[in-house]
Amino acid sequence: MKFTRNEALKSIQNTPTWDIAIIGGGATGLGIAVDAASRGYRTLLVEKYDFAKGTSSKSTKLVHGGVRYLANGDVKLVLSALKERGLLFKNAPHVSFVQSFVIPSYSTFNKLKFLIGLKLYDWMAGKLRIGKSILLNKDEVSLKLPKIKTKGLVGGVQYYDGQFDDTRLAINLGQTASAHGATLLNYAEVINITKDSSGKTNGLTLTDTMTGDNFTIQAKAVINATGVFVDDILKLDTPTHKDIVRPSQGAHIVIDKKFLGNEDALMIPETSDGRVLFGVPWHDKVLLGTTDTPLHAHQIEPRPLNEEIEFILKTANDYLENAPTEKDVLSVFAGLRPLAAPTDGNSESTKEISRDHKLIKSNSQLITITGGKWTTYRKMAEETVNLAITTANLQPAACKTHNLPIHGYSLEKKPGHWQVYGSDIVPLMKLASESPALGEKLHPSYEFLAAEVVWACRYEMIAKIEDFLARRVRFLLLDAKASLQAAPKVAMLMAQELGKDEAWIAREIEDYTILVNNYTL
């Protein structure tokens, strides 16, 4: 099936019953769709917004076991995540890769303490280990992190972890699920959970928010994989439901790569609030983050708080010479972590809550998966589908995702952002060569081409210009103001490809302008 909205809508209208219906198109939901479809189940996934619009596009872009979780004693989560890190490198090498991290140390005791912890981290990865942690002297740290403050520096530790492009992986998961027969639809809001005469969940009603059309579908198993929004779906199932998720916000800023100065990433293990802070090279910029701010409400486009921005910049200033200031920030963004709501008296602490996932089966047999992290999406999906099989009495089928190549799989390395297209790069470049207009840049300072917009319309299910600028390419996160300059051209190309009029173009540019304000200081 083609990965387009029209094909998805046709499939929804023509399929009497689904084995598994998934609500939520972030990392978890998309992973479940891949798992279920690859086992042969008739699978439907619906997403209220665009795929990975929420938390799954706003991560720190790390595929990691979680050094901090190890410090907190969460050995089970770290072991699982390290295994999954290795599987992701194997199954999606075009969007994930090994990244070197350096921890600068201003105390000999701390240097040795971190080395011991990271040696344990290496050992726990077993045969999926991706590098060897080593001690560095002061000069070696300065060579790897040219902008690091050297006053009092005694050396450091180098270790290896993973990095990835979160929404490129998300789109590739959607394409992989589609290739195995799943139907996926973005901009489709679930407005009702349907039940049989005994009160058991048997389907759902959704609204295509692009057209206003409603559809009621039958499903043997319904899975709620909506991240920080799981309570909203649980209230559709049980109006008296009490919230089980407490969102925690993680903010990030993006700056020019000159502020870090090399290919190695910076890891600050003990910030003033007890968290870890990363400075990571990403798409030719540097991403600084993250924070851990408890919130009492959730929203699809959270904005970093002023104090979060100040905290990140202050921490950077503590460690970097000529550190960035507010005027150097190219983009800011925040994601919400779906953490278990605290039951003790300390409702303002979130950093001690386990990042492990939870699987819940309601009395109605609605299945809910919450928590977890990008790195463990595959394992979470496997466990969720296993529960769906027993809950809905589906014909058992073994999980196939341990060794399932993700769409775009390629071992060939490409320069710049072309790397994330993987095996799609050949047909994409062929498209770009079809006319001079398609080979034009969207912005003089960036390598994104007009052909990428057309490609995303045809093969990556974009419906709004933000889908392209924020998620199919990462322009919004890399340089928010520059992305706004490219928006009119993107809107025009999309209108031509999707059959939209001038009024649509004007609305889209207006919507995107409002969105960009959320990503700038």
Label this structure with key terms.
3 domains, Helicase, Ruva Protein, domain 3, D-Amino Acid Oxidase, Chain A, domain 2, 10-stranded mixed beta sheet, FAD/NAD(P)-binding domain, alpha+beta, 521 residues
Could you describe the 3D structure shown?
The chain is α+β, with helices and mostly antiparallel strands and 521 residues long. It folds into 3 domains: 5-56 and 167-244 and 346-392, FAD/NAD(P)-binding domain; 97-162 and 246-340, 2-Layer Sandwich (D-Amino Acid Oxidase, Chain A, domain 2); 423-518, Helicase, Ruva Protein, domain 3 (Orthogonal Bundle), CATH 1.10.8. Helices cover 36% and strands 23% of the residues. The chain is built from 16 helices and 20 strands. The chain has helices at residues 5-14, 27-38, 67-71, 75-91, 108-125, 138-144, 166-179, 230-237, 306-319, 377-391, 425-432, 450-459, 465-472, 475-478, 480-498, 502-517; strands at residues 17-23, 43-46, 62-63, 96-105, 134-136, 155-164, 183-185, 188-195, 201-208, 214-224, 245-256, 265-268, 277-282, 285-289, 293-294, 331-340, 357-361, 367-371, 441-443, 446-449. Strands 3, 4, 5, 6, 11, 12, 13, 14, 15 and 16 form a 10-stranded mixed sheet that branches. Strands 1, 2, 7, 8, 9, 10, 17 and 18 form an 8-stranded mixed sheet that branches. Helix 2 runs parallel beside helix 7 (166-179). The longest helix has 19 residues, at 480-498. The chain starts with a helix and ends with a helix. The model is unreliable at 343-350 (pLDDT under 50). Residues 19-345 form the FAD dependent oxidoreductase domain. Belongs to the FAD-dependent glycerol-3-phosphate dehydrogenase family. Its cofactor is FAD. Pfam families: DAO, DAO_C. Keywords: FAD, Flavoprotein, Glycerol metabolism, Oxidoreductase.
